[in-house]
Write a sequence for this structure.
């Protein structure tokens, strides 16, 4: 099974605007055909961690993980972004499952 390295973005301190923090996006496949656990964690003053399971193979979940990373999607809206992508993933894989936690 292929290992997927977590993707981490570093945000620096900006005086009076932002404290430093990191966003880490991780993918943990359960096998070669799915499901996959996506996890988003943030360090710093507003630290949090959230994850969900998608009933899709890793090759379908990894592009979503890259999108989250490349667009620095924050924890407050990442589930909405996943919900938007999920029907597309389902069409590509020919599945009709749902997002679950």
């Amino acid at each position: 099974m292929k290992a997927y390295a977590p993707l981490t973005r570093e945000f620096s301190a900006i005086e009076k605007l932002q404290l430093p923090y990191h966003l880490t996006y991780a993918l943990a496949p359960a096998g070669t055909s799915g499901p996959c656990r996506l996890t988003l964690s943030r360090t710093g003053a507003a630290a949090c961690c959230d994850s969900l399971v998608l009933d899709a193979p890793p090759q379908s979940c990894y592009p979503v993980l890259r999108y989250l990373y490349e667009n620095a999607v924050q924890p407050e809206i990442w589930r909405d972004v996943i919900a938007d992508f999920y029907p597309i993933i389902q069409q590509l894989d020919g599945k009709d499952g749902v997002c679950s936690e």
